[in-house]
Amino acid sequence: MNEERSNGKGIVVNEERASIGKSIVINGELSGGEDLTIEGTVEGKIELHDHVLTVGVNGRIKAEVAAKSIVVFGQVVGNLTATEKVDIKEKGSVEGDIVAPRLAIADGSHFRGSVEMPRREEEAWTGDRVSSRNNDLVRV
Questions:
Q1: pTM of the complete model
Q2: pLDDT tens-digit profile of 53-65?
């Protein structure tokens, strides 16, 4: 799906955005070079290091996830690693550990796991996770 938006300078930017419909089931590894919305079921591993992953209200994820930003409206079981932000929306559910410099958890959402919030200047990709020098960890 292509989405057009203004960049604020009078230029229309055409963004690539992919989606996985609610009747689709994927088992295995998923990676890509564009933003992705999942309304179906994915089990395994998801890597979108420079892009946004949105788990729609019908989305059911059982996976290790790494992306620039992760927005959860549906259900996720597995660890989430984001270089910018994780956002759990109202009625969204996450069961797993989160590593991200910013985290938003809306009223009415569900979260069970731990949170590590590295300072942005201390971030470094190390394999599948982002780590910080001092590894500040908060148990929720």
A1: 0.78
A2: 999 999 999 999 9
Strands 12-20, 2-6: parallel, antiparallel or unpaired by DSSP?
antiparallel
Half-sphere exposure of 39 (CA within 13 A, CB side): 6
Amino acid (1-letter code) at residue 92 = G
pLDDT digit string, tens, across residues 39-88: 999 999 999 999 999 999 999 999 999 999 999 999 999 999 999 999 99
Q: How far apart are the first and last CA of the chain?
A: 37
